[in-house]
Design a protein that fits this description.
Pfam families: SpoU_methylase. It is a single chain. Helix 1 packs parallel to helix 2. The protein is α/β, with parallel strands linked by helices.
Length: about 325
């Protein structure tokens, strides 16, 4: 079924209803003529975020196919007080359709950051949630939108950078992209007709984020208990949590160390590395812990080199 780019394409649960293993390589950005951003509002008319925690939460759209969907997502964000939009490898740049469907959220659209892939979009993040429609072979802890919003708000309130990630209109997030997420969020739509377009999924999560922020900002708010494995020590940490880029550096060194000691012994390394990624992401390591573990791995690699040299003598 063909969709008018002005009409957001229907999707299944946060933009997934096709083969999860499909190769969705993004096309180069197509030059588009977008209108100039709307003039700045008069002093006092600016729509303020609910609280500073909301400014630490970004929405990431991966491989978006229709520019109009980007504008609709920006509108959904702004109505709920979110302003940080990141576009990871969009097939087309925002264009006139994007600005038309943004309907007053031109500032969010104009300020959107374009990056080459999801890893770049979340490099400085400490907590990443991926919106997915199906259970995958990747063992991600899964939450509904209300739980996910509470987790995002708690992490942002503790000073962490948080990302909420949405996939392509037809194929959603690929497995290797979900590997970059700490957990998944699933919208429990009508099982008889669970098709949600991209902007609708963004609107649902944005609304829940606003409600979580309002609840946390209430004078006598009593926060609901959250899973310790996801929230971690929060504001009790003396060291800042490790960023996504720091964790990826650690995983790269971990893979090298396992190769150096022949841990896999001819077996495919991907399965073990996937499990180790899940283990360490659940642990919510801080920067000092990552430095400690990388020091251990450096010693492992050094010892392996010495043993290999001794065996050659």
């Amino acid at each position: 079924m063909n969709h008018d780019p002005r009409e957001p394409a229907p999707t299944a649960q946060a933009t997934e209803n096709a083969n999860p293993n499909a190769n969705s390589e993004a096309n180069p950005l197509e030059a588009a003529s977008a209108p100039a951003p709307a003039p700045a509002p008069a002093p006092g008319d600016e729509p303020a975020a609910i609280d500073p925690a909301m400014a630490r939460i970004r929405v990431v759209l991966v491989g978006t196919q229709h520019p109009g969907n980007i504008g609709s997502a920006a509108r959904a964000m702004k109505t709920m007080g979110l302003s940080r939009l990141v576009l990871a490898a969009p097939e087309k740049a925002p264009d006139r359709d994007s600005y038309a469907l943004a309907a007053g959220a031109d500032d969010v659209l104009a300020a959107a950051t374009v990056v080459p892939d999801l890893a770049a979009a979340v490099a400085d993040c400490h907590f990443v949630l991926g919106c997915t429609a199906r259970s995958r072979r990747i063992a991600l802890e899964q939450f509904d939108p209300r739980q996910a919003a509470a987790l995002c708000d708690a992490r942002a309130r503790a000073g962490s950078e948080v990302a909420l990630v949405f996939g392509r209109e037809r194929t959603g997030l690929e497995n290797h992209e979900l590997q970059l997420c700490h957990a998944a969020v699933h919208i429990p739509a009508n099982p008889g007709y669970s098709s949600l377009n991209l902007a609708a999924a963004v609107q649902v999560l944005s609304y829940e984020l606003r409600m979580a922020s309002l609840a946390a900002s209430a004078p006598a708010a009593a926060p609901a208990p959250l899973p310790a494995a996801i929230v971690g020590d929060g504001g009790d940490r003396r060291e800042p949590p490790a960023s996504h880029a720091q964790m990826e550096g650690f995983f790269g060194q971990l893979g090298q160390a396992l190769d150096a000691i022949d841990f896999h012994k001819g077996r495919t390394p991907e399965a073990a590395m996937h499990k180790l990624r899940r283990l360490f992401l659940r642990a919510q390591l801080d920067e000092r812990e990552v430095r400690l573990l990388r020091g251990v791995l450096a010693d492992v690699e050094r010892t392996a080199m010495l043993l290999a040299a001794a065996q050659k003598r």
